[in-house]
Write the structure tokens for this entry.
Amino acid sequence: MDDSIIWTEKYRPKSFDEVIGQEHVVQKLRAFVEKKNLPHLLFAGPAGVGKSTLALVVARTLFGEVWKENFLELNASDERGIDVVRVKVKDFARTRALAGVPFKIIFLDECDALTRDAQQALRRTMETSTATCRFILAANYSSKIIDPIQSRCAVFRFRPLDVVQMEKLIAVISGSESLSIANDAKHALMAVSEGDSRRLINLLQSCSAVAKEIDARTVYDLASTLSPAELQSLMSLLVAQKFLDARSKLHELLIIRGLSGVDFIKQFSQEIWKLQVSERLKVALVDKIGEIEFRMTEGSDEFLQLESLLAHTIHMLAGEKNNL
């Protein structure tokens, strides 16, 4: 095993047959490529689900060995202005492809970061360069793409990987790298990655550098994430109305794991739904969690806000008991 290789590149699929997940997208893209008739494409979905990978697979399959000469990749979050569209994109779109395919491909990653002026310029470029160029746009939030661009593209919605697909990915990597992964570690990997294959692969590589036999504790430690047992111990203190103990436990968890307040809030909100309380109380607590998170993102002190959340949770749980 060569530890110098980034696994997200090492295990990036090179063909449609190697892609795990997104079957609804792969099937349609394969048909486009076989006919060498590709419309402008818009890939929309969360991070780490295969948008960039499938754009590269399309280029490799279409152009073969000379795919790099016919494929331009730009990251719009780095170069957001209108000059990118007017200079780099137009210059590349002006010439024909070399591999017997009537068009080149321009891949704009994170194009939801483009300014509106740049998007307006891109709209016109997409219109005038259709004879020599096709665009593949990737965005986490398609709502940030102006309607004229969306109407010019075939839109594909990408989904997070499900449990079966993540298990398949774990099996492929563990077999190739000779890793021993316990069942609880697999569940931890899937829970932490939340359908993000890139995060899953990076976390696996980090764990493999620490130990060949990976357990759940290793996964949670390297992901800087609280384990379910740690969260449950905190929730049990809140249910028992022990505010000072819960406050001490909160400080201990945040310091040991190095979590930010927003990271903790996300996990805490998921744990709320497991409490044995009324649905009305769960909704009220989630509403309060949203308010606390907003305060933290606006610059309020994280510890103070989280202590306020614990106090509010205990107060509402006590009210629930009194009403029974």
